Write the structure tokens for this entry.
Amino acid sequence: MSNQNSSNMRQDLPWTQVITKYKNPSKLRSWWQIANTLIPYVILWILMVESISYSYWITLLLSIPAAGLLVRLFIIFHDCGHGAFFTSTRLSKAVGYVLGVLAFTPYQRWHHAHSIHHRTAGNLDKRGVGDVWTLTVNEYKALSSQKKLMYRIYRNPFVMFGLGAALMFFFNNRFTRKSFTPEEKRSVYYANLGILVLATVLCLTIGWKAYLLIQVPVMYFASVAGVYMFYVQHQFDDMVWYGEKDWDFKTTALQGSSFFKLPAILQWFTGNIGFHHIHHLSFKVPNYYLEKCHRESSTFYNIKPITFFQSFRTLKLRLWNEETGKLVGFKSI
């Protein structure tokens, strides 16, 4: 066999060994990822401020890569909450709270819901926290006409992504609930205070109009992209759901979380989170090691990827059919 063919051969290690190999963060790689994301984000903000006086169309154009960088910062925020970015819990919290201000997301509250999501993903009997609202066919049929309409509106792509994503980050994240723990409530207050302080400083520096003309589109594009990524990770043709008695960690991680195969540039902006099956096997693996894990075990070789254009087909999926074990659209009923 030629050296070239040998170099292209994949490694074949047990998935548990691969996960163990990569579950510890690299301090150097973590800080480098913060630097190569946060610094360009700040530079783009400066360019957008300067561009407003020339053409707002240039500002809007620049807001797209800025939104991509904000998504990447959110992935770092996400890894901090999992303890996958730094070995120090205190440092993870400090970085997470700061990035949460940039992403309009309360650190402790978001991660509490997200940890529940990891414990219950793919479990039909434990839906409702940190996931996309999904009903079974029979549950939908049992609803009143008014509630059916509400569910259809919620699952409409223009509402879910075009409106709902922005509302979640701009407004829903600003409020506490009675069910929140004291620490979750404090994280909401701290995030709101941080956003207020940062917004005040920027408004005094560049003016409130310029601040809104930049912040709103950046947050809007980032929220739409982020919510769409999360949707595709858990709403796709071949995904599985099980009742509590049949739920299995490994099966639901590999078959209930997608391998969203993106072009290299989009994979970079989304912090490799398209390798979501790996992330659900072990949330301790930093995002910069997810692709390495995928390539080093035969467990992952035959997982069917979803490409960027194929992902749009998932938008028709609305309900879980317990008889066929498939996500289906409204037309099926």
